[in-house]
Design a protein that fits this description.
Layout: E1 39-40, E2 43-44, E3 46-47, H1 58-71, H2 81-100, E4 109-112, H3 115-130, E5 136-140, H4 149-158, E6 161-165, E7 167-168, E8 173-174, H5 179-182, E9 186-192, H6 204-213, E10 217-221, H7 233-236, E11 240-244, E12 255-259, H8 261-265, E13 277-280, E14 285-287, H9 301-317, H10 319-337, E15 343-345, E16 355-360, H11 365-374, E17 377-378, E18 380-382, H12 387-393, E19 398-402, H13 409-426
Parallel strand pairs: 3-17, 5-6, 5-9, 9-10, 10-11
Antiparallel strand pairs: 1-2, 4-12, 7-8, 11-12, 13-14, 15-16, 16-19, 18-19
Bound molecules: ligand 7TS.
Length: 427
């Protein structure tokens, strides 16, 4: 069965949890990532833009190639061998996703293009069917535009209102002091698990429980947490959860929405077309059972195969080991950045996800990132699709270094050395 991907080369679990400063993820892991071994502008690449997208290990690339070389056909359609294999690969990936996030059933998983489409799907289906004038959608001030704009569009259509849990100053934690008042009339709470701009890890389990207690439906944007820490939708207690494959070593163009079965049953279709119908007449149609009802057209089969391979790869490393490595690199980067004069570092004082955002008083972020790139260091600058948050922080843009399990402390040292050089030059 070709869709059952081979285990990656590093298939044993390393001692866990790790002690002290030694990561349980071996430095040789980098050999699995062809992109990481190149030079940029004559310098070894330091890839610190993992919150935007991660690099892909060979087992993922090989799984996609193998699928196209051996099994390629359309799903759910043919009676022939290749179509059966493609269908098995695609549905096998759905099971793998369910297992990865501990969903009760594969039926709870809807494949999408990524987080953005998953969020828009909830707004277009559950939202349009359940929200009316006066209902409140509760978000936080640190949401990515893709967990903000779909709700603005929905609010404009339905007359629902948006309300926000505020963020506290530079530390970027949620201010939960008036939560009970903020929860009144709330029909949907939608929030990010880990902030892509601040690195804050939000207390989503607690917030979902509070929202549930007032009868609200809950959605977790797991774009920055899936593949970075252990994720269990049953433990989180959420109704919906969205993530993208490309941020966890999978290919672009594939992601998933976890949607609790009871909610799916009452949701109207998302898009119309092939694959989502059972019978079609000239005037009306009947739809397939969920989740197929929400997946019109030929899906991203190769993407699902790649995502399956990525999840096998990550689970072999262990989500706790990945999280420990992420947080260690982020803490070390923050500690080293704090050595600079005139720097403002954003995000929580305590534990954070694998990223650090900062600004220098006297150096423009664009100059910084451009000159860092000349030295082979890839970081992102801008508002990171959180423009209202940046407005609140009082800065138009920040520089962001974001990490994954293949990054090392030595790379952080190189990054600091490059920053020192750049600042010297720009002075
Ligand atoms: N939600 C969060 C919290 C994100 O960080 C992102 C992407 C998205 C949603 C959207 O994911 P997509 O895969 O559908 O695009 N964040 C970033 C980033 O920080 N830099 O580039 C993309």
């Amino acid at each position: 069965h070709l869709w059952r991907e081979r285990l990656p080369r590093h298939h044993h679990r390393w001692p866990n949890p790790r002690r002290g400063r030694m990561s349980s993820i071996p430095a040789t892991i980098r050999e699995d990532f062809p992109t990481l071994t190149q030079e940029i502008n004559g310098h070894p690449l330091v890839y610190f833009d993992n919150a935007a997208t991660t690099q892909k290990p060979r087992p993922v690339l090989e799984a996609i190639q193998r699928y196209y070389e051996h099994d390629n056909a359309n799903v759910h359609r043919g009676i022939h061998e290749l179509s059966n294999r493609a269908t098995a690969a695609y549905e096998g990936a759905r099971h793998r996703v369910a297992q990865f996030i501990n969903a009760p059933s594969a039926k709870d998983i809807i494949f999408t293009r990524g987080t953005t489409e998953a969020l828009n799907l909830v707004a277009a289906t559950w939202g349009a069917g359940n929200l009316r004038e006066g209902d409140v959608i509760l978000l936080t001030e640190m949401e990515h535009h893709s967990n903000l704009v779909p709700w603005q569009l929905l609010a404009q259509r339905t007359g629902a209102q948006l309300r926000f849990i505020p963020v506290t100053g530079d530390f970027g934690e949620l201010d939960l002091s008036d939560l009970d008042e903020r929860l009144s009339d709330v029909k949907l709470l939608s929030l990010t698990h880990i902030s892509n701009a601040l690195g804050t890890i939000n207390p989503v389990t607690e917030l979902c429980a509070k929202a549930k207690a007032v009868g609200a439906v809950t959605l977790v944007d797991a774009a920055q947490s899936a593949g970075h820490l252990p994720l269990d939708v049953q433990a989180l207690g959420c109704d919906f959860l969205a993530f993208s494959g490309h941020k966890l070593c999978g290919p672009t163009g594939i992601g998933a929405l976890f949607a609790r079965a009871e909610l799916q049953a009452a949701m109207p279709p998302y898009q119309g077309g092939g694959e989502m119908i059972s019978t079609v007449g000239f005037q009306t149609s009947e739809y397939h059972e969920p989740p197929h009802k929400f997946e019109a057209g030929t899906p991203n089969i190769a993407g699902a195969v790649g995502l399956h391979a990525a999840m096998d790869y990550l689970d072999a490393l262990g989500s706790e080991a990945i999280h420990a490595h992420d947080t260690d690199i982020a803490a070390y980067a923050k500690e080293r950045l704090a050595e600079f004069d005139g720097i403002r570092i954003f995000g929580p004082a305590g534990e954070r996800g694998g990223l650090v955002s900062f600004v220098f008083e006297k150096v423009h972020a664009l100059d910084l990132a451009t000159m860092a790139d000349q030295q082979g260091v890839a970081i992102r600058i801008g508002h990171h699709c959180t423009q209202p948050l940046h407005e609140k922080l009082g800065v138009p843009a920040t520089a962001r270094a974001s990490f994954y399990f293949y990054n090392t402390r030595a790379e952080v040292d190189r990054f600091i050395e490059v920053l020192q050089k750049v600042i010297q030059l720009l002075k």
